[in-house]
From TrEMBL, chain B:
Belongs to the binding-protein-dependent transport system permease family. HisMQ subfamily. It is a multi-pass membrane protein. Keywords: Amino-acid transport, Cell membrane, Membrane, Transmembrane, Transmembrane helix, Transport. InterPro entries: AA_ABC_transptr_permease_3TM, ArtM/GltK/GlnP/TcyL/YhdX-like, MetI-like, MetI-like_sf. This is Glutamate permease. SUPFAM superfamilies: MetI-like. Residues 15-205 form the ABC transmembrane type-1 domain. The chain crosses the membrane at residues 19-41, 61-79, 86-106, 118-135, 147-171, 183-208. GO terms for molecular function: transmembrane transporter activity. GO terms for cellular component: ATP-binding cassette (ABC) transporter complex. The keyword Membrane applies. It is found in: Cell membrane.
Length: 292, 216, 297
């Protein structure tokens, strides 16, 4: 009976938190992001100049990643990735409502950039060499890592080696799914979304859910009585970068400059606190920019 | 192309699981579907009503929703399975059974009335009329549409890939992420393995259709 | 209406049937009761879980659901509108008298029909790097055009040979005979199957969920993702109910059209074998007893 009451309480908290988040998302665009630079001027022929003149930008992001890029009830995405996008757009002299958000899923990010369907991709997009063959990355602007989400009462799993031969849920065809299967020998149970994974975990049909720690942290926050992270340690490094056209070195260098600027003038910190920082208490430092 | 060759073990594993899901669900659906069709023409009003209701609802519910129900709602009701294949089989067979019931019913419909009248006039009961006279004749007309339903079943099993079962479609998604630059070949490979099941079944349907036509 | 399969039940049989029915209803009610109590224990019927549908968030929630319904219908409508003419074109190619048009078309049709629709959607999404809407529409269009083509072909083949022969005899070209004599009859004759296929098409839009198209089910999932997993069930139940309701409505309309269509068709050419069925009032959309038509060659 007692557990029922606490459960309901946490439910209310979760609902009100979600509501607060959606409210802050509606009104927050002006509060968290610096206003667009009115007098921004760029060298002719650069991508920055083109976007500035057009007064609009197409940014690809995920619509289903809590805390980073998630579509709210009002249809607008919210999250840290989205705030980063708004900050960069502002530097191009583009207001938040002039940004066209395009949903990108893991499998189509490269091709969307190559075909010019989006100008930028900010979508929990891990920088790696295979991807660098097709697109360029600015950043990283955040470093996540793969982790395991387990049931609260489960003490048998603390490290990835513990799930060898056991069932672990992840999204079909995602990189975390591949890692846990190939490196740690887990049996992957594929789902359409990470939220869908929570049900079999709750029912103990799988022992863990795996993806980047920041996404899992969002679930722990929503249901602290049900789930926990197996460990605070991550077992991969996932530096998130901003994807853009492969040969656009000028634009890439410019974004890198902006990211460093955001770290200095607190835009970075504010964006974090307004989104993921509500759940993940340790505020990140901007990782060292990789100017390759 | 080399990505396809390198992934042959995955394809094979997925192919076998797709086959497994289809065969088991197909058998269950055939049995349940025939029972439903028998209920639909039975003297007991409640059975008729139930059968009609079931068929109507199941045929009008998207498969994705049935999968969602079997894989996510049922465990909450205390029906838990060690293997996620069980949820997929429940979803696929309960969906397919409705279509089979309809096909069998229209097959029964195609048997001339005189057949049943003759059987009844020699004193056969309802079960005897149905079991010995009507259904055996109905089967002939019904086989081509039944095969088409089974082909649809094989294709529908791809939805399981989004609900915890790693079958052909699920592997297709996984491999297309692994080999981002060879998506075309990876997915054509998946298509090939589906066609490996569906095309022979389709040819069989054509063949049977022709045979039945001659027998008439 | 009585069936020839059994006698009109007497008082005893009626009693048994009544007892049996009552028992059956009780069993079903029992199962439902167990399900409901299990769910209730998990708090699924708690008012705060359902508050999303009438509480302060309700406008946003219903707006989202409305968008979901619209995108479901939009994808289905666009796909249907393109698939039908494409299906006619494919059918014409399929029954062409020239082998090297007919045979490749047949191969393409078999290919399209033998493939899961969701795989086609994924193919379009990844290989052509389109948006989700285009992927869903193209996947649905290609698949259903192939099915329409097959249905129409079966319709043309079920026509009496004399129809085409008469057309040719009065000096029509083969193509003219197809268009002005055979197609109109085939469409009319196959109307039930064509409309039934439209219902399938509408239902298949839910596959968009898997490739990330924001149709109704995906919107529901997005909503539940956003509000937290506790709202998954209320959201899902409402979504499923809406989906079933839409489909049932379209099915009903389909059956109405079918009835009208069959009346009209009766005025035209009589079906090859006027058979009397065992089951009364049965409209059989699956009636695939299309006898292989007259040989064209």
């Amino acid at each position: 009976m007692k557990s029922l009451i606490t459960r309901r309480k946490s439910l209310l908290v979760a609902a009100s938190a979600a509501l607060a988040l959606s409210l802050s998302a509606c009104g927050g665009s002006s509060g968290t992001t610096t206003p667009p630079v009115a007098s921004a001027s760029f060298e002719a022929g650069t991508t920055m100049e083109k976007l500035n003149k057009a007064g609009t930008i197409k940014i690809g992001t995920k619509f289903d990643q809590p805390l980073f890029g998630q579509k709210g009830l009002d249809g607008k995405p919210v999250g840290f990735d989205v705030e980063m996008g708004k900050a960069i757009a502002a530097k191009l002299g583009i207001a938040p409502d002039k940004i066209e958000w395009v949903e990108t899923v893991s499998q189509n990010r490269e091709s969307f950039i190559e075909q010019g369907r989006v100008d930028l991709v900010i979508a929990t997009y891990t920088i790696n060499d295979a991807r660098k063959e097709k697109v360029a990355f600015a950043g990283p602007y955040y470093e996540a890592g793969q982790a395991l989400l387990v049931n609260k009462d489960d003490t048998s799993i603390t490290k990835p080696e513990d799930v060898a031969g056991k069932k672990v849920c992840s999204v079909t065809g995602s990189t975390p799914a591949k890692t846990i299967a190939e490196k740690y020998g887990a049996e992957v149970v594929p789902a359409a979304t990470y939220t869908a994974c929570l049900e079999p975990l709750r029912n103990k049909q799988v022992v863990a859910v795996t993806t980047d720690n920041v996404i899992l942290a969002g679930y722990v926050d929503k249901e602290p009585d049900a789930f926990k992270l197996a460990s605070d340690e991550t077992f991969t490094k996932e530096p998130y970068g901003i994807g853009l056209k492969k040969d656009d070195t000028v634009f890439r260098a410019w974004i890198n400059d902006q990211l460093e600027g955001f770290a200095k003038d607190d835009t970075y910190k504010k964006a974090w606190e307004a989104t993921a920082g509500k759940v993940i208490k340790t505020a990140p430092e901007l990782p060292t920019i990789n100017r390759y | 192309m080399d990505a396809v060759i390198a992934s042959l073990p995955e394809y094979w594993d997925g192919f076998l699981r797709t086959l497994y899901l289809s065969v088991i669900s197909g058998i269950i659906a055939l049995i349940v579907g025939t029972l439903l069709a028998a209920m639909r023409v039975s003297p007991v009003a409640a059975l008729r009503g139930f059968s009609m209701f079931y068929v109507e609802v199941a045929r009008n519910t998207p498969l994705t929703i049935i999968f969602f129900f079997a894989a996510i709602v049922l465990p909450r009701l205390g029906v838990k399975f060690e293997q996620f294949e069980v949820a997929a089989i429940i979803a696929l067979s309960s969906y397919t059974a409705a279509f089979i019931a309809e096909a069998v019913r229209s097959g029964v419909n195609s048997v001339p009335v005189g057949q049943a009248e003759a059987a009844r006039s020699v004193g056969m009961t309802f079960t005897q009329v149905l079991g010995f006279i009507v259904l055996p004749q109905a089967v002939r007309t019904v086989i081509p549409p039944l095969i088409n339903i089974l082909i649809a079943l094989v294709k529908n099993s791809s939805v399981a890939g989004a609900f915890f079962v790693l079958e052909l479609f699920g592997y297709g998604r996984q491999l297309s992420n692994d080999y981002g630059n060879q998506v075309l070949w990876i997915l054509l490979g998946v298509a090939f393995f589906y066609l490996l099941i569906t095309v022979p079944l389709g040819l069989l349907a054509h063949f049977v259709e022709r045979k039945v036509a001659i027998a008439r | 209406m009585t069936s020839v399969l059994y006698d009109v039940p007497g008082p005893k049989a009626r009693l048994y049937s009544l007892i049996g029915s009552a028992a059956g209803v009780l069993i079903i009610l029992g199962i439902l009761a167990i399900a409901v109590t299990t769910l209730a224990q998990q708090g699924i019927f708690d008012a705060d879980r359902w508050a999303i549908f009438y509480g302060p968030m309700a406008p946003d929630v219903w707006n989202l659901i409305g968008q979901g319904i619209l995108s479901t219908l939009a994808a289905a409508a666009v796909a249907a509108v393109i698939a039908f003419p494409l299906g006619i074109a494919l059918c014409l190619l399929r029954i062409s008298l020239i082998p090297w048009i007919r045979i490749p078309t047949q191969v393409v049709l078999e290919f399209l029909r033998g493939m899961p629709v969701v795989l086609m959607m994924l193919f379009v999404l990844l290989v052509f790097a389109t948006g989700q809407f285009q992927a869903v529409v193209v996947g649905l269009t290609l698949y259903n055009a192939a099915i329409f083509a097959e249905i129409l072909r079966a319709g043309i083949q079920s026509l009496p040979k004399g129809q085409r022969e008469a057309g040719l005899a009065i000096g029509l070209r083969s193509f003219q005979s197809r268009m002005s004599i055979e197609f109109p009859q085939a469409v009319r004759r196959m109307l039930p199957s064509l409309v039934a296929q439209l219902v399938v098409l509408l239902k298949d839009t839910s596959l968009g969920y898997i490739v990330g198209y924001e149709e109704l089910l995906r919107k529901i999932q997005i909503m539940a993702d956003f509000l937290g997993p506790d709202f998954l069930f209320p959201a899902f139940f409402v979504g499923a109910a809406i989906y079933i309701l839409i489909n049932l409505t379209v099915s009903r309309i389909a059956i109405m059209i079918e009835r009208r269509g069959s009346k009209k068709a009766a005025g035209g050419v009589a079906p090859p074998s006027l058979r009397t069925g065992l089951v009364v009032g049965g409209n059989d959309p699956v009636a695939k007893d299309s006898v292989e038509g007259p040989n064209k060659a």
